Amino acid sequence: MAEQPQSRALAHTETTDPRLEEMRQAEHDLVRWIVIGIVVAVPVCVVLFMAAIALSLRNESTDLAAPLAMAAAVGTLAGLFFGAWAGFVFKGNALDEVDRKAQPRGERPSRPPARDH
Fold first, then answer.
1. For the segment 61-115, what is each residue's pLDDT rounded down to a tens digit?
2. Residue 9 domain-assigned?
């Protein structure tokens, strides 16, 4: 009988640690909100950049294809940036809360004493 080769695929292990599961859920929510932000921001930024170029060149006698294509590309890049930024701003605090819960009170870094000015 020939031996079956072992699968090299990673086995999905179930975690019983609720803190780890909470961290995974917070990361999943963060990624979800970043994707939502990008999906919303890219079309908005593309339209805004293309409208700005179209308005600025409306009285010129030049071909609009190349400037509008560049505006679409720049709008896509801007949408990726602002969408990811907005998603992180909306859900980044959830990761901080999970980190605060995960660290025991004694391990938290101490804050410097307040200075009176």
1. 888 899 999 999 999 999 999 999 999 998 888 888 887 877 766 665 666 777 7
2. no
Residue 85 belongs to some domain of the structure: yes
d(CA 61, CA 64): 9
Say how far apart CA 26 and CA 67 lie, in whole Å.
41
CA–CA separation, 25 vs 52, rounded Å?
40
**Alpha-carbon dihedral angle through residues 22, 96, 109, 114, given to the nearest 10 degrees:** -150
Shortest CA distance to 32 belongs to which of 85, 98, 87, 69? 87
Q: Is 10 part of a structural domain of the chain?
A: no
Read off φ and ψ for residue 38, nearest 5 degrees: -70, -40
d(CA 99, CA 78): 31
47 and 85 in contact (C-beta within 8 Å)? no
